[in-house]
Amino acid sequence: MKLRRLPKFWSHGFACLAGLLFTIGYSATSFSSEAFKINGKVTTIKDLMKLEQDKFYRLEKDKYQLVEGLARQAYLDAYFKKMGDEQKISAEAARERYMDKHAKFTDKEIKETLEKYKNHPKLKELPKAEQENQIRNLLRVRGEQEIVQAIISDGLKAGHLQISYPRPSEPVYDIKVTSDDHVRYHADDSKATKPVACKGDDCAITIVEYSEYQCPFCARVIPTTKQILKEYEGKVRWITRDFPLDFHDRARPAAIAAHCAGFQGKFWDMYSILFENQRSLSDKDLDGYADKIKLDKDKYLKCVAEPQKAIALIDKNMQTGASVGVTGTPAFFINGRRLSGALPFEEFKRVIDDELAKAGKKS
Q1: Which of 136, 167, 219, 250 could disulfide-link to 281, CB 3.0 to 4.6 Å?
Q2: What are the start-end ranges of the E strands in the chain?
Q3: At a CB cut-off of 8 Å and minimum separation 6, what does 26 contact?
Q4: Strand pairing of 34-38 and 41-44?
Q5: What is the C-alpha to C-alpha distance for residues 139 and 304, in angstroms, rounded to an integer?
Q6: What residues pair up with 339 in beta bridges, in sequence order?
């Protein structure tokens, strides 16, 4: 795989980054500058950032990643140009020679990778020789990527590559846990509310989830939820809050049913059964789930018929979510740090481990 080539102006070196920073509007005082006036009252960029922390963070993160990517490519260009000058060949030829020497793989690796991907739809239809050719290309690409990363990492460590553009600070939201919140410590629903090693604010990690029962992405992340609770047992408390979306007509009735179960101490039992049956959330279905988890049926029916208490909790949850920028589900806050969507376990692990490391340094 050839590295993407940048325009010739990159041969001028890192001085071009100054022009880039000017182009994308960075300045040290930009956050305190005036954004607009209404009847003479000034609103600054900083004021707006307080209102929309997550959106501004994502914009600043995109700008940083743009600068970082351009800087990395410029460093690679300079690296191979210097190598080419020393060898009296072009930078491209130097790069190819370097990759040929270092991005090597063995016949054993080809065989093992071919075995791993042998049932891939696009691979198994090809002739044997072409399959091996595809695997060789794959291994070459991986090898080059590892080499490029090593070159850049060495450059950063040695100070040959310095990215001056400021990395944006991730917003941390102040989310208060209240007595109305449903908290779990176990992956097992039958033990969900029983603390393990830590309880309440003593837990190093607090994860607040905003979700709703018709959201397919919310259901998709439940195995990850249980994996987190198992692997970090005794360190995590998990809190779920309602955020029923308008276009899911059964999300709010399902949330009411969950709270009515919660009033009988069986919130997490209902939570699980609702997500297991997302396509079956009619009133009749919900009544059946109440029977299945052995609720006091008369109390349950009265609760759903007069749902004001449950609705008040749902609306409160939605208001707290909206106040920290939640617009869709699922959304998660790990010690106030936001993750959005049905992300893999590794994304949660990255933030959780970072928070545990911080807690370790403080203790």
Answers
A1: 250
A2: 34-38, 41-44, 182-184, 205-211, 236-242, 331-334, 337-340
A3: 63, 165
A4: antiparallel
A5: 59
A6: 332
From start to end of 115-235, where are the E strands?
182-184, 205-211
CA dist 328 and 243 (Å) reads 8
Peptide bond between residue 330 and the one before it cis (omega within 30 degrees of 0): yes
- Tell me how far apart the alpha carbons of residues 161 and 1 are, in angstroms, rounded to a whole number: 23
Cα end-to-end distance, the chain, whole Å: 47
pLDDT in tens, 9-40: 333 444 444 444 444 444 444 566 899 999 99
CA-to-CA distance for 200 and 61, rounded, in angstroms? 33
Report the alpha-carbon distance of residue 184 to residue 362 in Å, rounded: 25
**pLDDT 10s digits, 107-163:** 999 999 999 998 888 888 899 899 999 999 999 999 999 999 999 999 999 999 999
